[in-house]
Every structure is written in C-alpha cells, then in structure tokens.
Amino acid sequence: MHDTFESNFSLKGFTSILIGLYFFIAGSLINSIVEGFLIDDNPMGMLSPQIVEIAILALLFFVFLFSTLALFFGGRRTAKKFDYKLWNTETKIAFRNYIFKVIVIFSVLIILMNLGFINYLTPVFLILYGGLLALSMNKQRKNLLVLSGLSIFLAVICLLIPSYWYASLSIIGIAHIAYGIAVRY
C-alpha cells in the first residue's frame, strides 16, 4: 500500500540526490565563510563573530527547509503517481514528528553554540541526524541504516579530529547522492 508516510515521504531517487547536494553545497559555503572570516585580507574578516554565526545558522535553516521541500514535492509526486491522498492522518502525525525532531536538532545546536562548544557542533549534528534517519526508517528501507551508521561514524571521527567537519559534511552529501542513485524506486 502506498498511502503511508514512508512511501509518500521517502529518501529515494531524486529527493535523496537533492538533499545530498544541499548538504554538499552548505558544507562548502560554511567552509568558505569560516575561512574568509579567519583570513586577514578577506572582507568576511571584518564581520563580527555573531554575524558569521547567524549567517551559518541561516544557511543550515535553509538546508533543512529545502530538504523538507524536496521531501514534500517527492511525496506529492509519489502520491499523484499512485492516486493517493498525500496528507492523511498518518502522514500529518509523522510530519509533525519530523518537524519536532528538526526543532530539537536546531535547539541543541544553538544551545551548544551559545555555550561555546563550537568544536562539538558538527559531531552532535551528525549524531542527531543519524538518529533522525534511524528513527524515520521503515522495515522496507533498511539500507537507510547505512546512511545513519555513516553519519554516526563520521561524528565519532569529528570528535577525535575537530578539523574534519568539512570533509564529514561533504561525505554525508556524497553518500546521500550515491544512495539516491542506487535506490531509485
């Protein structure tokens, strides 16, 4: 049956490719913002740290917004293809749970940032994102466990090597792209 949250809103095909591209582009933009802020001759170096933090948080917000929209439009396409209603009771409850989990992730990251634990932002994000993937997986999509496990593994690497954050976000983005290509339907 295709009238469920898992089939309507799933990380497969083009949706996963888009989410991977969003992660990859966001990681690259965050890296260029941070490097520009740290280099003396760059105009970004003249900004205050608070403005840089706000710019990075806004960028992360847009990544989650565009990822959610990719899930929505992919789900709408699937529901239209099988002639089912996209918003039923099950999908509304699951979508509220998804939004709650995203709010929790952002809240934890903002609290960590305000407490000054900047080196732990990426590992905590990757652990929470891996948990989000693991909790949103259904029985037919056990290969999402690979993305979740990779995310948690990269979080451990980031805890050990704090400068590995950019590579970790790039690897997660590439893994999403590869997953989207491998699991088309």
Task: Provide structural commentary.
It is a single chain. The chain is built from 7 helices and no strands. With 185 residues, the chain is an all-alpha fold. The protein is globular, with a radius of gyration of 17 Å. Helix 2 packs antiparallel against helix 3, helix 5 runs antiparallel to helix 6 and helix 6 packs antiparallel against helix 7. The chain has one domain. The mean pLDDT is 84.
Describe this structure in a few short sentences:
This protein is mostly helical and 185 residues long.
Features:
185 residues, mainly alpha, 7 helices, globular
Which SSEs are present, and which pair or pack?
Blueprint: H1 5-8, H2 14-38, H3 49-81, H4 89-115, H5 121-135, H6 144-160, H7 165-182
Helix pairs in contact: 2-3, 2-7, 4-5, 5-6, 6-7
Q: How many strand segments?
A: 0
Low-confidence stretches: none
Secondary-structure element order, N to C: HHHHHHH
Indicate the structural class: mainly alpha
Tally of discrete structural domains: 1
Radius of gyration: 17 Å
**DSSP summary: helix tally:** 7
What general outline do the C-alpha atoms trace?
globular
- The average pLDDT score comes to 84
Helix content: over 70%
- Biggest β-sheet, characterized? none
